[in-house]
Specification:
Blueprint lengths: L1 E5 L8 H14 L4 E5 L6 H10 L4 E6 L1 H11 L6 E5 L5 H6 L5 H10 L2 E9 L2 E3 L2 E5 H14 L4 H15 L3 E7 L2 E7 L1 E6 L20 E5 L8 H9 L10 E5 L1 E5 L5 E6 L2 E6 L2 E13 L4
Helix pairs in contact: 2-3, 6-7
């Protein structure tokens, strides 16, 4: 049996039609699939645990990166593979894993059942499949969610939240210990990626591989928060590295201290949690089995 967990809050497609189409596609493929419509993305992890306990041959996450990450956190270290139906807005993990964005092709990929092993990152016991960050981004997400509760649509809320936070954000001081090296800097953000991200040009934000067995940390110690839109513009035209605004380094483990702060907001794959310092990051190479197209 294949458990298919659909998040109704993902993307922009009308939920009823999408769920029916997913069911038809699996039925046409003669699959023994159980379609589970989640009431919210917060239910994804519990639904995945239930599916595993009932002997599911695979657990398929139908939604965006948050849903995929929640399901993956349950499957890490197990033999149960993760399938992905990219139904979110950006679908970063699916794109980096080579999973088709077309729904029919994604279902066909699940049915072909070609499995590979990829890495995940971990911070203070919480896993992430894309990246984790502290600094300006978690604050923007927190402000965005406040605005969404007031009735603003997602992207308008994000734009307003970004303008508010960037205008007053002063940055944070971080001390990073990574494999015997220690660095200290004031920065608007620290992003820890599960493997290396492209930071310049048209492939900005993409990863060439998910099995490199490393974390890559990014920070901008010479950039004020209000200058971040300029840094993004430079990255889009392939000039961020040339201006030495963005620094990065790779490690398998790193500890992050934020002097004067006992608890801080941490973003993991777009969701925000509050954690106690120090933050202990590590990579877990090859710990997640994912269904991908055969190459």
């Amino acid at each position: 049996m294949i458990a298919v967990l659909l998040n109704p809050a993902s993307g922009t497609t009308e939920t009823r039609d999408r769920s029916a189409r997913v069911a038809r596609l699996f039925e046409a493929a003669a699959a023994d699939a159980q379609i589970v419509e989640l009431q919210s993305g917060a239910q994804a992890a519990d639904a995945a645990r239930s599916a595993v306990s009932h002997g599911a041959a695979a657990v398929v996450a139908g939604g965006g990166d948050g849903t995929v990450s929640s399901v993956a956190s349950v499957l890490v270290g197990s033999m149960t593979p993760l399938g992905v139906l990219p139904l979110g807005t950006l679908n970063h993990f699916a794109k980096d894993a080579g999973i088709p964005q077309d729904l029919g092709a994604a279902v066909a990929t699940v049915m072909a059942a070609h499995v590979t092993s990829v890495d995940v990152g971990e911070v203070n016991g919480r896993t992430f499949i894309n990246n984790s960050s502290i600094g300006v981004y978690p604050d923007i997400v927190t402000e965005r969610e406040k605005l969404r509760k007031q009735g603003y649509r997602k992207w308008m809320a994000f734009a307003l939240a970004s303008a508010r936070i960037l205008r007053r954000y002063r940055g944070l001081v971080v001390r990073i210990t990574a494999e015997a090296a220690i660095a200290r800097a004031r920065t608007a953000f620290l992003v820890v990626g599960n493997n290396e991200y492209e930071t310049d040009g048209l492939d900005l934000g993409a990863r060439a591989r998910l099995d490199g067995g490393q974390l890559v940390a990014y920070l901008a110690p010479r950039v004020h928060a209000r200058e971040l839109p300029k840094l993004l513009a430079l990255a889009l035209v392939g000039r961020a590295k040339g201006h030495h605004a963005l620094e990065s380094f790779a490690a398998t483990e790193l500890h992050v201290h934020t002097p004067g702060r006992h608890r801080l907001r941490v973003a993991l794959d777009g969701e925000v949690a509050v954690m106690t310092r120090p933050l202990r990051y590590r990579t877990r190479p090859g710990s997640l089995r994912v269904i991908v197209p055969a190459r």
